[in-house]
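Lecture notes, part 5. Sequence design as translation. It can be helpful to think of inverse folding as translation between two languages: the language of shapes and the language of residues. The source text, in structure tokens, appears below.
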């Protein structure tokens, strides 16, 4: 009786901190959020209400049409990862810009950009790029900090350029249009890629020993190698151009992309049944993992809403004398700090039920906030101590200390901070393309 009389907001705040404790004790994220959400809902609305929620939320999450996008784009990325397309693409880019100072590192970022627009996976992009480009950069005596920093930064583009798993999860959690999110990520993704390459060029002009120029290729060699770029470029054009032009929906684009990825795999490697089945297996595992986490997050989010914590937080932020832009900057700084200590997916799913109502209250466009959030997640991938992409690279390249890779990533982290500020100042960089799609 005493517990039922407790203020729901107090129950919500306690539940939020209990969730963090369970997370740091090692409980799986989806299970922890579901348990806390169910328990808190039961304390506020009774056991019957909590049981009703437990039966309703998982089904409505799985039955969401938006969620069908996820396995299709994951499958597209898996099959392309097995196709060997990245190796051929890097060869073409290397011959084109390798003769410039830092050209091979810039080529790594450019290839990551193209591969990211096909796969949507930062880990797959960075690990594959390490195998493909690091031997060439070492052959030309590139500094390992620059080489691996460029690969790590280029790999993070995997979640900013569509298709992007965090964008899909954000869409499910907030109801934002997945098509608009995909299209909204195109210009920022290309701009950030260009800023990375410009940063590399400036560094290598200043200190040529960091990234010496590679051998100059003839025009005929460049032309011959560039033929390998038509396939990934065509795939990106069909998928994203179809969404932007309204030819098909995001889910249909995922299906078409998966089909063309299979065609690409067969054309480049033959009918490799093992690669095809491996891609299907990895897709099922990835989709199931994300699905369980999202279901737990939806239960936890409803608990936060019923407890009144979300409205309390919204009222607190709107009472601050900073204006909408100031509050948005505070939220982004919070995400940058959280990215240092939390897994990126956990950070997003734990905080969105609380933060998104605040974002709506202060009038920030959901598409703009989604892209800004994805960039903070990118930053968390290369931020110590838990930078996921850096951890993956350290595991793949045993002879380079992890601290050295983190140091090599720091110039790119600074570029991301500058770019984040640019998007806050000029939101039309994100919103222009989605608006043209609507019209």
């Amino acid at each position: 009786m005493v517990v039922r009389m407790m203020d729901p907001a107090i129950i919500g705040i306690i539940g939020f901190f209990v969730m963090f404790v369970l997370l740091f004790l090692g409980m799986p994220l989806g299970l922890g959020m579901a348990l806390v959400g169910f328990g808190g809902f039961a304390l506020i609305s009774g056991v019957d209400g909590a049981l009703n929620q437990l039966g309703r939320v998982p089904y409505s999450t799985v039955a969401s049409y938006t969620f069908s996008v996820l396995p299709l784009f994951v499958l597209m990325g898996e099959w392309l990862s097995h196709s060997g397309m990245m190796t051929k693409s890097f060869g073409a880019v290397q011959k084109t810009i390798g003769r410039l100072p830092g050209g091979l590192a810039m080529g790594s970022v450019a290839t990551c950009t193209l591969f990211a627009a096909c796969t949507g996976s930062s880990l797959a992009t960075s690990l594959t790029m390490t195998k493909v480009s690091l031997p060439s950069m070492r052959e030309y005596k590139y500094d390992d900090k620059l080489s691996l920093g460029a690969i790590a930064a280029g790999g993070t583009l995997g979640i900013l350029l569509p298709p992007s798993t965090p964008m899909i999860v954000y869409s499910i959690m907030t109801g934002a249009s997945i098509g608009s999110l995909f299209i909204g990520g195109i210009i920022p993704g290309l701009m950030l890629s260009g800023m990375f390459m410009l940063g590399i060029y400036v560094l290598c002009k200043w200190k040529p020993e960091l990234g010496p120029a590679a051998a100059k290729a003839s025009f005929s060699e460049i032309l011959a190698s560039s033929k390998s770029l038509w396939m990934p470029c065509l795939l990106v054009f069909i998928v994203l151009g179809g969404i932007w032009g309204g030819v098909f929906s995001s889910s249909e684009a995922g299906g078409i992309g998966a089909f063309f990825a299979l065609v690409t795999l067969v054309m480049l490697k033959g009918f490799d049944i093992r690669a095809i089945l491996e891609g299907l297996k990895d897709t099922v595992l990835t989709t199931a993992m994300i699905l369980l986490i999202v279901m737990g997050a939806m239960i936890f989010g409803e608990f936060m809403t019923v407890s009144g914590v979300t409205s309390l937080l919204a009222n607190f932020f709107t009472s601050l004398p900073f204006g909408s832009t100031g509050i948005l900057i505070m939220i982004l700084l919070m995400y940058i700090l959280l990215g240092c200590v939390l897994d990126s997916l956990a950070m997003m799913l734990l905080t969105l039920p609380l933060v998104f109502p605040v974002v709506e209250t202060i009038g920030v466009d959901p598409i703009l906030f989604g892209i800004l959030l994805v960039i903070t997640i990118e930053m968390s991938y290369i931020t110590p101590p838990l930078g996921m992409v850096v951890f993956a690279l350290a595991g793949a390249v045993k002879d380079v200390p992890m601290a050295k890779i983190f140091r090599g990533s720091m110039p790119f982290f600074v570029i991301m901070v500058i770019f984040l500020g640019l998007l806050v100042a000029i939101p039309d960089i994100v919103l222009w393309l989605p608006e043209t799609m609507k019209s």
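The translated text above is only one of many valid answers, since several sequences can fold into similar shapes. The first helix runs from residue 2 to 5.
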